[in-house]
Specification:
The chain has 488 residues and is an alpha+beta fold. Among the domains are: 132 residues, no CATH class; 32 residues. Helix content is 60%, strand content 10%. The longest helix has 32 residues. It is elongated.
Length: 488
């Protein structure tokens, strides 16, 4: 398998709403085993992006890579100013290979969605489109540089967490130069510790607090916090590297996440159901069954306060509910679940007593206060109203244009249409019957005033015949009305 397909497998490993646990476990074992590109093959591309020879940009450049991935590889170097830097160079020709793989994946997704009905609820086309956006973003190192700078700004008040600084002068689409973090990868560092203790607990705390702040407070976070991207630095600090994959969590999604935690704390199964329906990416759903599953979820966590909540177990149970109800998570929720699982796994390797909920609670409260304050609610209401009013002229114009083109269609789905037709016919007949009867009465009344002609009991015979006919017709109409009333 090429790097694109291996990365897709790793993405699927973060979709417990789509795949059963045994499949997830197998996909998590996928890794890209990449051989570094010899420096001789990347020198010309590197110098083209630098705009000068390597020796003119750096006083020192180590040709053996520090790390090699499927998209790029990283070399150690030193700027003319003496600053140690990491030079990330995109692999030559990798863009063309990835684009070709993505086209193949798109055709496969089209086939699956059109031909395999059981997979339509997962929206393969949408999954591949999101994956393609992620891959294209990873190919552009300028995007990674912007992500790194944005996250660094958000964490600038935290002295315990360190991120590389971008060197803009030498950063391009195929090249990213940043300060080198001198530290040890967390797994290697952990092997040097005799046993878990204050130092390992401190690293777990710093890492968890930083990632959870990115997620819950900032809405922009490192989406791949595995041990290879976490460094232990001197001075009891933690470093994060490789911001090629970042996640974004909108205010709306964070409000939903806050609502879910509040609903669990208050044991409100209907509120839990509402959040799951908001999270679920389309599909037909039995709301009553989903509500029952939400109640069962609350029963499993009965009596558990937020501080003691097992977040990973909760998310796993939610994913199972979504999967069993033939629903699917949107991509940003799936990525969030992956980050929480990775974070808790790393935390427990550093500290067997690591409890992510203890780190989650204070940040969750900050998020809830920030997103549900009266000022924020007022501002959101004004913004939404302004958006609706601003779009109203355009919507009306579009509606009128469609009507002029004959593009307006009115679709009616009437049940028991035959019964409705019979009732209409019966009513029309009665109206006609009544009008004829009324006409006979009026005509007979006129005939009774005319002198001459045969008489009966001293009255005009034609008038008497008319009154008799009118009476019979009136009685028939009355009988029809009374009978239809009893039949209802």
């Amino acid at each position: 398998l090429g790097p694109t397909f291996v990365k897709l497998g790793q993405v699927l490993a973060s979709r417990p709403d789509m795949l059963p646990p045994e499949w997830i476990e197998e996909f998590r074992k996928l890794h890209t085993h990449v051989t570094a590109v010899p420096f001789a093959e990347i020198r010309s591309q590197l110098e083209e992006d630098l705009g000068m020879r390597v020796s003119e940009a750096f006083t020192e450049f180590v040709e053996q890579p520090l790390a090699a991935g499927s998209i790029a590889q990283v070399h150690r170097a030193r700027l003319m100013s003496g600053v140690a830097v990491a030079v990330k160079v995109r692999r030559p020709e990798i863009r063309a290979k990835v684009i070709a793989d993505l086209r193949l994946l798109q055709r496969l997704a089209d086939l699956l969605e059109s031909e395999v009905s059981d997979l339509r609820r997962f929206r393969p086309r949408k999954v591949v489109r999101h994956f393609a956006r992620t891959m294209r973003a990873e190919l552009d190192l300028l995007i990674e540089a912007k992500n790194l700078q944005a996250v660094a700004h958000n964490l600038s008040d935290n002295d315990e967490i360190v991120l590389p600084e971008v060197v803009p002068r030498f950063t391009r689409e195929r090249l990213l130069v940043m300060t080198l973090l001198e530290g040890e990868h967390v797994e290697a560092w952990l092997q040097h510790q005799a046993r878990p203790g204050p130092a390992t607990r401190s690293v777990a705390r710093i890492g968890a607090d930083a990632v959870l702040k990115m997620v819950l407070v900032d809405g922009l976070y490192h989406a791949d916090p595995h041990p290879g991207n976490v460094l232990v630095l001197s001075g009891a600090r933690v470093g994060l590297v490789d911001f090629g994959m970042v996640g974004r969590l909108s205010d709306t999604r964070r409000r939903e996440f806050a609502a879910l935690m509040i609903a669990i704390a208050e044991r409100d199964e209907e509120a839990v159901t509402d959040v799951l329906l908001d999270w679920s990416d389309g599909g037909q759903v039995d709301v009553e069954q989903l509500t029952q599953d939400a109640q069962a979820l609350l029963d499993r966590f009965q009596g558990v306060v937020l501080r003691d909540l097992d977040v990973t177990a909760l998310l796993a149970d939610i994913a199972e509910i979504v999967r069993e109800n033939n629903l699917a998570f949107p991509a940003d929720v799936s990525m969030l679940i992956k980050v929480f699982v990775s974070l808790e796994d790393l935390g427990r390797r550093l500290d067997p007593e690591f409890d992510m909920s203890a780190h989650l609670e204070p940040l969750a409260r900050i998020m809830i206060r920030r997103l549900h304050s009266p000022w924020v609610l007022l501002r959101r209401g004004i913004r939404d109203s302004a958006r609706v009013l601003a779009g109203l002229p355009h919507d009306i114009k579009s509606l009128v244009a469609r009507a002029r083109r004959g593009g307006m269609k009115l679709e009616l789905d009437l049940e028991r249409l035959d019964h409705f037709g019979r009732q209409l016919d019966r009513s029309a007949n009665r109206i006609t019957f009544g009008m004829v009867t009324a006409a006979l009465i009026v005509g007979t009344s006129i005939a009774m005033t005319i002198d001459g002609g045969p008489t009966l009991w001293g009255l005009p015979a034609i008038g008497l015949l008319g009154f008799l006919s009118s009476a019979l017709l009136g009685l028939g109409l009355l009988w029809s009305v009374l009978r239809s009333g009893r039949g209802r």
